[in-house]
Model the fold of this input.
Amino acid sequence: MAAVAERPLAEAAAKPFLGLLNGIAQCTFYGNAEITEELLRDQLYPETAPQEFRALLAKTTGVVKSIASADMDLNQLEAFLTAQTKKPGGITTEQAAVIAKFWKSHRVKIRDSLINQSKWENSLKNISWRVDLKSQSRHADQLNNPVAIVEMELGKHGQESEFLTLEFDESKLNQMMRKLSEIEDSITSLTQSN
Done:
């Protein structure tokens, strides 16, 4: 009978802690400035003293940042959380279970967010290509020749993209394909020699 009564109590404690983890992810990894310490305390732990909540927030944020920076797989996560539960002033077993559940569902999104935050330069977001016939040219002999048109979308996450359009005639396309083949051969030789 006591075990049945403890289960709803443990589940009731898990909900605000999961909310805390989601709040930490929102403000730390997803850039949501609306999530503040005060908001989290008021919404999730209203009866907790500010200093006590600040300590819980700092400890939990540290744990989540450690997990995220190492991009822990499930085995690493289990070992890390076990160590955290045995550490004086560490997390509880219930908190470790909630963190494991949280990490399983948020790992990819947090990893992608960290990658996007670490990019300094634009990256290739999309590329498309097509073969077309040249319909305008300064020289009449170039009309109706096939051309490859490559369109690239470049940009940083959360910013407006730039578009780059390239046009290749047959000789330029063949030249580019030869260069790409040389690059592929170089990469293959370097990876096979190690």
In short: Strands lie at 123-133, 146-155, 162-168.
